[in-house]
Amino acid sequence: xxxxxxxxxxxxxxxxxxxxxxxxxxxxxxxxxxxxxLSQDGGSADPATVQMIREDLGLNxxxxxxxxxxxxxLASFDLGRSMVDDSSVSAEIARRLxxxxxxxxLAALISLIIGIPAGIYAALHTGRSFDRVASYLAGFAQGxxxxxxxxxxxxxxxxxxxxxSAGGFVAFSQAPGKHMLLLLMPSFSIGIGLAAIVFxxxxxSTLEVLPLDYVRTARxxxxxxxxxxxxxxxxxxxxxxxxxxALQIGSLLGGxxxxxxxxxxxxxxxxxxxxxxxxxxPTVTGVILVISALFIGLNFxxxxxxxxxxxxxxx
Length: 315
What we know:
Helices cover 78% and strands 0% of the residues. It is mainly alpha-helical.
């Protein structure tokens, strides 16, 4: 129990550090957010109006006082209101978060569907044509940036083949088929890199399991190759795959920033970019806090699972 509480406390400290760094970074970025907000139409900001809005938003108070007020709001799960349109940041995040999670979920599913079967087949046929070609493609997939792959997908499937739109969003309740079609390309763009990692780990883990005694014993008993793979090789080879996969899911959160921009997918990343451009402090802080909380929560869950399965981790 002490180990569990210690890991939970460490996660909260990490989240507090992230909030502090984001708060300080935004406030030290050059440019007055109020002047930027008032000059969006191309006109000049009136000094009296700027001062009035700064007082109304509390930006004229000392930065320490603003920081303490921000922490109090976060403690009560209040992310504040947008400085641009006075909308609730929490409500906007709640509206956009499912879209980003949907993108990440499908990307993770794509990576598993491609990576695990290909990794096992390559290990069972090591040194052959499929193994060499698949290993080469995995290295290429890990190296290509997500925005480059996304642009290539738009060029091929939207511009050349005319199979789908270049981007955009349609609610699932309005048009389920079109929603999934628009979701497929951005998910594939960020999922293919993870698929390459899953392929490499699955292949390496399967090669380690193949020469073990229980696999040879299963073959000596006359069991079929299909049963040996599914019941003996796969179950043991997937242990390190699950470990790496769980840790890599957090990296998909970073990949969505460029992908959502390329495909005009209205998730958290687009909200973050627009908030940074407008110096919208509450929006930027709220989005980064939610993304960080998801990442830290996932790592905390992995740590807990390690501690439950391996007592050595708790020590």
